[in-house]
Amino acid sequence: MCLTIRYVREQAGDAGVARVLALAGEERTAAELEDECRWSTYEQKIALWEAAALVLDDPVVSRHVGESALRHSVGASLRVLLRALGSPRLVLSNIAKTSPKFSTVATMEALDVQRSSAVVTYELHAPKEPHFLDCQCNIGLISLIGPLFGMPPLAVSHPECQVDGAARCRYEVRWTPRFARLRGRGRRRYLEEQLSAMAAQLESLESTAADLVADDDVEAVLGRIVSRAGVALRAPRYLLAVRASDGAPISVHADGFANRAEAADVGAELLETEPGTAFRGAMVIDVATSRRFYGRLAAFFDGHEFFEEERRLLSAYARSAAAALDAATALDAARRRGATAQALLDLARALSDVSSAPEVAQNLAEALPPVVDADAGLVFLWEPEDAALTVHGRHGWPGHVHDRLGSLVLARSEHPSVDAFIRDPEPALIRAEDVDASLRGIVELFEVETLACVPVQHQGDFLGLAVAAFAEGVPPATEGRLLERLAGAADQAATALRNASLLERVRRQGLHDTLTGLANRALFEELVTAAIARSSRDGRRPALLFVDLDRFKRVNDSLGHDYGDRLLCAVADRLGDGLRAGDALARLGGDEFGVLLHDVDRAYALQLAERIRTALAEPVVLDGQPVVVSASIGIAVFPNDGACYADLLRNADMAMYEAKERGRNACREYQPGAATHGRARLALETDLRRALLDDQLALVFQPEVDLAADRVVALEALVRWDHPVLSRLAPGRFLHTAEEAGLSLAVDAWVLRNACRHAAAWRERSPDVRVAVNVAPTSCGREELVDAVSVALRESGLPPSGLELEISETAALDPSPDALDVLAAVRDMGVSLALDDFGTGYSLFGRLRGFSMQRVKIDGSFVRASNEGDSIVPAITTMCHGLELEVVAVGVETIEQLQLARRHGCDVVQGFLVAAPVGPGEVTAMIDARLLAAHGPEFAAAAGRSGSRSSVPQV
Question: Do 88 and 176 touch, CB atoms closer than 8 A?
Fold first, then answer.
């Protein structure tokens, strides 16, 4: 049909073509009819010729159409094929094979073929009606055999015709042998024509090759390969059946079949046929490269043979199809790798913005389908506390499956397969039909054929499980690559999960105390502020308790910070046990805790505070050693004691300090006047810091007198503060403030320097008199005390034997290793040690050896309270002498107390009866005086009859 349309256009232009199509009743367009692959029925062909005859006024138009074939590229491959036969004689001899290229409803045979003549018959099959124009077309085509070989058209006569009632048409053909005719211009035209036909065929192959490069749609390229093969071979039906990869569905491209279903069935059957086996009379060529076998290309021409040249030509197109598939699979692999890389990059970008483990899981679930071409993704996270895998990410599932998976939990104890996977996590492909009975019910929930599972791990820590679901099976050849890509995504998620865990830990650390796990000050403020906001809506009043442990620093100094931390944790547990459900507890810093009480009045808040204080009073046992702890608690109730968090906290803090100043281990409610007191305490602390810098402190000295010799053996340095506004302050007014502010060591260092300086001056007259300096309990465990003593001795020039440090019994009760080391270092310098306030802390005498004490000072309360019947002074004296310790009776204020000290064997006395403290300028005169004799003969006699142990060694 394409030859007819082109001939009409050549003669009458596009307008003539349009008229012909209209007259013929043709619904197809001219472009469709010019498609060499499109076949038409016999009736359509006759109708088109009849219309052309009318439009062109040419009764034998079909003959002229046949004769015009060489002027067009139509059938270039067929022309090359015919020329390959070598001569008109051979072409006519094979006309039975050639004629089906033009019609499948007739049979043409060569009856008698000679060197320069032949007889050809043509029989139109019933029920087709013979037509004059069909015969004319045959004449035109047969005559054209001559020009194929550079010869004049063959002479064709038509003595018998089916139109006239003959059984078949008879054509008698004559020609002059080619070797006698191919000279000069004739030979040149023949060669040019042959070159043109071969160029057209080459152009078709080149066009096919260009398609492979230019078009990345492999299906479109395969379709065009089938079309071009049809043009080249002129067979009625063609079929290309291939698989792009193992396990991939069959791709079928066909031409000439009734419908797609028929072509698909034939294609599947074609691929199942053994190589070399005849298949429905078709010419079958394998579509394969050195890399792999893809399928087959077949040309169907029922009942007709093919030329060998046609086989070679079809093979060329089969190779083109194989090359296209090679390129397509390579491109597809590259695209897949690119898509995987892009999906992993997108996943990395998504994970960089998330801050929680559930967000990481959801991002991973969304990334799995594009990474591995899966239908859906699912991510479990490992919950160590529950020993179970819990779904936290799901994507791509049908609605009902999506909802079902949201509550899926795989407990390790309930599923042996899960337990085995967690113990030895390895990537695996799970097929629904192969799963064991313990997991079958769970796998059925997914409603898929295959699950690809990989562990999510970070440096050996199991974090979860990533699952990619496939509605259909996964080809075995792709399993390894699939699991590798899936593992790559899981590795990215593992890092993000670890980062999210660290971020969560940082977030928690930002709002929780790292030691006790309680809320910290920042979170406590949020909780109290929220409670205040709720109170404005529901009227429930919150209260804030400020809890501060009493003398907690002693625990750190005496037992060490490890014990202190453990004690804080124990206290936190007790505080928590004493609270109601809904109340909140926080560690505000150091040994300070905050408690938020909900819906309380002042009386109930005080009751709860007392309950907490009582709970803390029970000793805490640390490594078998009981440690007594108490707390001072301040109470502030909203809204009377503060309308915001800052006010409540400040006022509860002030109430707590009020409890400390009233003896500790107590609860106090905030009182409006406490603010003034608190400001005064803060001002005193500030002034004390300045006093140390401006040298506002002063020393006075009180003598210690030997009972036997009535001579001064030591002077105790007592500190005073000459406050610029408050005048002179006694130690009781500011030493507690110094301890709370951490200034005790600074005060001790100042006293040491100045006491040693004064002592060095009077030692020139009285070399045996020493100066005694009190050391705060908190200073005993600090190495800086050793430095302070060393500096004081070096700067003053006082020998170490001239200095004595008085250690309170409080510091000796729970001596830490640090305190023992510090005091031992001082003792090794040659400085003597004395135990002050002995008896107030239920002392253990064994501790005295550990401290290497030289003397013990009995607290004045025992001296003043003693009488002959119930005094414990004799027992203390006897035991101390047994340890070769000198005994000093402190606080002697009456003759009776002096006599008691003498009778009970005390060695030294000190008190206002003996002498009041004096300034540094009066010390020399005091040393020279007989202080006991100054009170009269009776007093002097008492001193003279003393049974004191003046022989105790002095160091």
Answer: no
The enclosing H or E element of 749 equals helix 744-762
What is the value of pTM for the model shown? 0.39
Q: Reduce the secondary structure of 33-102 to three states and give it as a string.
A: HCCCCCCCCHHHHHHHHHHHHHHHCCCCHHHHHHHHHHHCCCCHHHHHHHHCCCCHHHHHHCHHHHHHHC
Closest Cα to residue 252, out of 284, 230, 260? 260
* Nearest-10 crossing angle of helices 184-214, 308-352: 20
pLDDT tier for residue 589 given thresholds of 50, 70 and 90: confident
Rounded Cα gap, residues 506 and 516, in angstroms: 16
Q: Rounded to whole angstroms, how far apart are CA atoms 842 and 217?
A: 98
Both tokens of 779, joined, read 């200073």
Alpha carbon distance 710, 908 (integer Å): 9
Sign (positive or negative) of CA dihedral 713, 717, 718, 721: positive
**Is-contact 888 896, C-beta < 8 A?**
no
What would the two tokens of residue 933 be?
A: 């004799």
Q: Is residue 136's pLDDT more than 90?
A: yes
Closest listed residue to residue 314, CA positions, set 295, 331, 297, 336: 297
Q: What are phi and psi of 292, to 5 degrees?
A: -170, 165
Q: Would strands 832-838 and 855-858 be described as parallel, antiparallel, or unpaired?
A: parallel
Task: Please report, for residues 427, 517, 783, 790, the alpha-carbon distance to residue 468 in angstroms, rounded to integers and kept in the order given.
Answer: 11, 39, 64, 75
* Token output for 144: 């054209």
Give the Cα separation of 251 and 255 in Å (integer): 14
Give yes or no for a contact between 176 and 141, defined as CB atoms under 8 angstroms apart: no
DSSP state letters, 610-634: HHHHHHHHSPEEETTEEE---EEEE
Give the position of tokens 């099976």.
473
Q: How many alpha carbons lie under 13 Å from residue 517 in its C-beta half-sphere?
A: 8
Give Cβ neighbours of residue 765 (< 8 Å, ≥ 6 apart): 924, 927, 928
Cβ 747 vs Cβ 697: under 8 Å: yes
* Integer Cα distance of 53 and 47 in angstroms: 10
* Crossing angle for the helix pair 184-214 and 76-83, to the nearest 10 degrees: 130
CA-closest candidate to residue 56, choices 38, 68, 44: 68
783 in helix, strand or coil?
coil
Q: How far apart are CA 874 and CA 905, in angstroms?
A: 7
The 10s digit of each residue's pLDDT in 27-39 is 999 988 887 767 7
State the DSSP code for 519.
Answer: B
Interatomic CA distance for residues 291 and 222, integer angstroms: 18
pLDDT tens for each residue of 749-802: 999 999 999 999 988 888 889 999 999 888 887 889 999 999 999 999 999 999
Residue 81 has pLDDT above 70, yes or no: no
Query: Which pLDDT tens digit goes with each residue over 798-831?
Result: 999 999 999 876 666 555 667 778 888 999 999 9
Label residue 819 exposed, middle or buried (CB < 10 Å: 0-12, 13-18, 19+): buried
- CA separation, residue 405 to residues 122, 497, 882 (Å): 74, 21, 82
Which tens digits make up the pLDDT trace of 141-182? 888 888 877 788 899 999 999 999 999 999 999 988 754 444
Token output for 848:
């005295």
Q: Is the pLDDT of residue 915 over 60?
A: yes
What pLDDT sits at residue 508?
Answer: 61
In angstroms, the CA 78 to CA 198 distance is: 10
Range 374-378 average pLDDT = 90
Mean pLDDT over the full length of the chain: 81
Tens-place pLDDT, residues 258-300: 888 999 999 999 988 888 788 888 889 898 887 788 889 988 8
Backbone dihedral angles phi then psi of residue 108, each to the nearest 5 degrees: -120, 130
